Amino acid sequence: MKTLSESTRLHNQVALITGATRGIGLAIARALAGESCNVVVTARDESSLKKISRELTSKKIRVLAHVCDVRDPDSVDDLFRAIRSEFRRFDILINNAGITHLNLPVEKLPFAVWKDVLETNLNGMFLVTQAALAIMKRGGTIVNNLSVAANRVFPGSAAYNASKHGALGMTNTLREELRPRGIRVIALLPGATDTDIWKTLWPQAPRRKMMAPETVAQAVVQAILLPANTTVESIEIRPSVGTL
To answer: What is the pTM of this model?
Structure first.
């Protein structure tokens, strides 16, 4: 059972979740809203953003839904102008936006696909983080959703693997840079989770054996709610042994 301090700690705080209209991003947005945290939800699909905005607003929090392409510096700048206009503070960044690609060996992987995956998963994380750091104060938290592909190799997923390995290197570097500023940086490495990414990666995947996005979201919220003088550097969460 939550204590009173735990249930109100995120009240009036502001969290930005990229890739917030489905999967783990949507689950985290819902979980933070459930903790009375104001949320900024962003993605490229305007109609989906409007839908999730209506849902989250019903929780009596402030919600800003803003279309953003994390690959585009101008689009990211526009997003943060909207955040600065709407809120007086910025506390939590969830870098969740990410894509994968068809299972193809390196010799058959089109450069355009390679480029799009790295621009979204790695460059996008860099652009959003850099913009966020201009307004994030001491006590803030950054969570980068990396997947277990950040420290494992899956044949046929070269661009995805490369983007996540690179994102882990950036995350670890960022953590050391931000320690003096009192900003926590957490690497989220979920295992197989029941999201739409499998439609591209492995259409026949046994999704019923996977974790629910809500399970991952719960772990993220628990990490954010740790006392200000403590942190976890990474969250690696997987389905139970033998289930997948």
So the answer is: 0.90
